[in-house]
Amino acid sequence: MYLDNAATSFPKPEKVYEAVMHAMRDVGASPGRGGYRRSLEAARILFQAREAAARLFSISDSEQIIFTQNATGALNLALQGTLVSGDHVITTSMDHNSMLRPLYALRNRGVELSIVSTGHDGVVSVEDIRRAVRKNTKIIAVSHVSNVCGAIQPIKQLAELCHEAGALFLLDAAQSAGYLPIDVGHYAIDLLAVPGHKGLLGPSGTGLLYVAPQVNIRSVIQGGTGSHSTAEEQPLVMPDGFEAGTCNLPGIAGLQAGIEFVLERGLSAVYLHESALLNQMEQSLRDIPGVTIYGPADPSGRCAVLSFTASGVDSALLAAELDHGFDIAVRAGLHCAPMAHRTLGTFPGGTVRVSPGWSTTSEEIAFFSDAVVQCIAKIRKSV
Questions:
Q1: CA nearest 68: which of 182, 219, 212?
Q2: Which residues, 6+ apart, have CB-to-CB distance to 66 below 8 Å?
Q3: Which residue, among 283, 251, 293, has the nearest Cα to 365 in the 3D structure?
Q4: Residue 48 to residues 152, 256, 292, Cα–Cα distance (Å)
Q5: Are the C-beta atoms of residues 277 and 3 closer than 8 Å to each other?
Q6: Helices 315-326 & 362-382, crossing angle to 10 degrees?
Q7: pLDDT tens column, 286-341
Q8: SS3 of 115, please?
Q9: What CA–CA distance (Å, rounded) separates 24 from 40?
Q10: Helices and strands in the chain: count of H runs, count of E runs
Q11: What is the DSSP letter of 313?
Q12: Residue 89 near residue 115 (C-beta atoms within 8 A)
């Protein structure tokens, strides 16, 4: 049983596998690298994938979407493509290393960094962010949903604050895309980083960055774009100038199919299905003595994941017992977010993180809950 969809969703809808194989077996060519039929078909796939992503995020011009290899690549482009020495950026203690490590590297190059601590529930205070704003604040960057405890940040209020300060709003949607509605206009999002392999149900090695039309961004990779070939410098045209080199066409074809599956099913249906599973899981876990669940107390303030510990039980050992004894895949540890665990009080041991997916059933959650009881009892007995 696979319950680690917050890392990579599995299984994918059948149409995703079919789209990947079609791009590999029947198309084969690269978009923008020739005028022959196969190359034109590849370009059509690329365009249709951009259009599908634009529909999902209410983006009016799909050319403002840059395909990347993952959300980490999108965040690096967003941060390194906009910040320069002397700029100030604000983020939170719940953010992932994919946000924090690029910011640490930029800090070494003269960018000023403020990391605002959230509450113990993982939710940041808008007023705390406001107090961190400076005259040179260039970006406020936050994860929409915590990958550790599922806490949903108040992005509407944060975006309003951001623009009051004359700064850009960068949203990391790694754990929210495909689950929560994201309208870039409604939320006034300037930069949106999205992985393809999680809630969008696409293959690994896919992602995207949305860049609002008013945002000036620099390329961080130079090379062939299939256009403006006589220019010695990288052309800063959207999106070609930011997608240098041969694209992952099979992955992008699969991503298009994944997005279309989400659109057909409907975000509200996906959210309600997974929320019901998380609520069922939480009720079962709370009946186990010594189990602590992290994140907002109100389930409506959480999304996509549930994180817990059991007193006297090592989280990694519990995950291993679930895997070896019951073939249940969950993730244990720090989840590439050590500062988030310090905030929640779960450092250094981390938590067990459970993240059901679109195909997970209520019966599977019941089986998981029973398995947790047995594994905890076994570990406690052996201590």
A1: 219
A2: 74, 77, 208, 209, 210, 211, 238, 239, 242, 243
A3: 283
A4: 30, 7, 45
A5: no
A6: 120
A7: 999 999 999 999 989 999 899 999 999 999 999 999 999 999 999 999 999 999 99
A8: strand
A9: 15
A10: 11, 11
A11: B
A12: no
**How distant, in Å, are the alpha carbons of 153, 302, 308 from that of 296?**
11, 6, 12
Provide the 8-state DSSP code for 138.
E
Q: Which two tokens stand for residue 118?
A: 């959230």
Is 32 within 8 Å of 379 (Cβ atoms)? Answer: no
Among 323, 280, 320, which Cα is nearest to 299's? Answer: 280
- In whole numbers, what is the pLDDT of the chain averaged over residues? 95
Confidence of residue 273 (pLDDT cuts 50, 70, 90): very high
Spell out the residues 6+ positions from residue 282 whose beta carbon is closer than 8 angstroms to its own: 293, 299, 306
Measured CA to CA in angstroms, residue 94 lies from 219, 337, 339, 363, 371 at distances of 28, 7, 6, 32, 29
Sole residue written with tokens 């949607």? 173
| Per-residue CA distances from 81 to 84, 181, 185, 191 (Å) | 9, 26, 22, 11
**Would you call 189 helix, strand, or coil by DSSP?**
coil
Residue 53, by phi and psi: left (phi above 0), alpha (psi -120 to 50) or beta?
A: alpha
Extended beta strands in 69-218, E state = 88-92, 112-116, 137-143, 168-172, 191-195, 207-211
Q: Determine the residue type at 260.
A: E
pTM comes to 0.96
Alpha carbons 210 and 25: distance in angstroms, whole number: 30
| Residue whose token pair is 């060519």 | 29
Element (H, E) at 4: none
- Token digits of residue 234: 């990288």
For the chain, which domains are there?
Answer: 14-265 (3.40.640.10), 267-382 (3.90.1150.10)
Residues 6+ apart with CB under 8 A from 232: none
Residue with tokens 């999304």: 303
